[in-house]
C-alpha cells in the first residue's frame, strides 16, 4: 500500500508543477492589469511578513492553533458523514476521536486554514451588516495577512516533525496532497478575488496546462525507451 501511495505521489507531481506554472501565468496577467490593487496586496503581504517574524521571535499561540487544527479534523469527519466522539486540544497537543479516518480527514488542517477562512467569512458577513466596515479594508487585510501567516508558519513548522497525520499515509504522499491542496486553494482565492476569466475558461486553461505537461513527460520517457531499449534484429 505504501508503494502504491508513492507511485500516486510521483504521478501527481507533474500535475502540481503544471498547476504552479498556470498560477504563475495567472499572477502575471493579473498584476499587469492597470487596475491591479497594489495597496491591498501590500497590506496583506505586510501582515504575512509581520506574523512570520512574530512566529520566530514571540511566544507562539500554540493552544489557539491546536484548537483550530482539531476543529478542522472534526469538520472533515462531519463532511465525510462520520461522527466525532471527542475533541481534545491544549498547548501540548490534541486529538479527535471519530468513527472513520481518511487522507482527507488527516490532512484537512494543512489544506483548509480554519482561522483565515473563519476571519474571511466574518469579514464578508460584517460588511453586509455594517457597510461602513469597507472603509477599513486595508487594516482588515493586514490583519487577515497576520492570520494567514501564522497558519502557514505553524503548518511549515510541523512538516519536518513526526506528526502522526503525516505518518499514517506516508510523509511523501501526505506532503504531496498538502502541496496540491494549498496550490488549488490559492488559485481559487486568486480567481475569486480578481476574476481574470470565467470559471469554465480557467478550468480549461488549467486542464490544457496539465495535458501539455503530462504529454511532454510521456514523449520524453518514450524517447528514452526507444533510445536505450535493445532493438530486435
Question: What count of helical segments does DSSP give?
Answer: 9
* Average predicted local confidence, pLDDT: 89
Report Rg: 21 Å
Derived from helix and strand composition plus strand pairing, the structural class reads mainly alpha
The share of residues in helices is over 70%
Query: Could you tell me how far the N terminus lies from the C terminus, measured between alpha carbons in angstroms?
Result: 40 Å
The strand count comes to: 2
Overall, the morphology is globular
| Total discrete domains | 1
Run of helices and strands: HHHEEHHHHHH
Report the major sheet: 2 strands, antiparallel
**Poorly predicted runs:** none
Largest sheet strand order: 1-2
Portion in strands: 5-15%
* Assembly state: single chain
Amino acid at each position: 500500500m505504501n508503494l502504491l501511495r508513492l507511485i500516486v505521489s510521483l504521478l501527481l507531481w507533474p500535475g502540481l508543477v503544471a498547476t504552479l506554472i498556470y498560477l504563475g501565468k495567472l499572477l502575471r496577467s493579473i498584476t499587469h492589469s492597470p487596475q491591479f490593487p497594489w495597496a491591498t496586496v501590500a497590506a496583506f503581504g505586510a501582515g504575512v511578513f509581520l506574523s512570520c517574524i512574530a512566529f520566530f521571535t514571540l511566544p507562539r499561540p500554540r493552544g489557539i492553533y491546536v484548537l483550530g487544527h482539531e476543529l478542522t479534523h472534526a469538520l472533515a469527519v462531519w463532511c465525510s458523514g462520520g461522527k466525532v466522539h471527542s475533541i481534545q486540544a491544549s498547548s501540548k497537543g490534541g486529538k479527535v476521536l471519530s468513527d472513520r479516518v481518511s487522507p482527507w480527514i488527516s490532512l484537512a488542517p494543512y489544506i483548509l486554514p480554519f482561522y483565515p477562512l473563519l476571519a474571511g467569512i466574518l469579514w464578508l458577513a460584517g460588511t453586509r451588516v455594517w457597510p461602513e466596515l469597507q472603509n477599513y479594508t486595508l487594516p482588515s487585510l493586514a490583519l487577515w495577512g497576520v492570520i494567514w501567516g501564522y497558519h502557514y508558519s505553524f503548518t511549515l513548522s510541523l512538516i519536518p516533525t513526526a506528526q502522526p497525520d503525516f505518518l499514517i499515509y506516508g510523509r511523501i504522499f501526505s506532503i504531496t496532497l498538502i502541496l496540491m491542496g494549498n496550490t488549488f486553494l490559492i488559485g481559487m482565492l486568486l480567481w475569486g478575488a480578481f476574476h481574470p476569466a470565467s470559471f469554465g475558461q480557467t478550468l480549461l486553461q488549467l486542464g490544457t496546462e496539465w495535458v501539455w505537461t503530462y504529454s511532454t513527460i510521456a514523449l520524453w520517457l518514450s524517447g528514452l525507451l526507444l533510445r536505450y531499449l535493445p532493438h530486435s534484429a
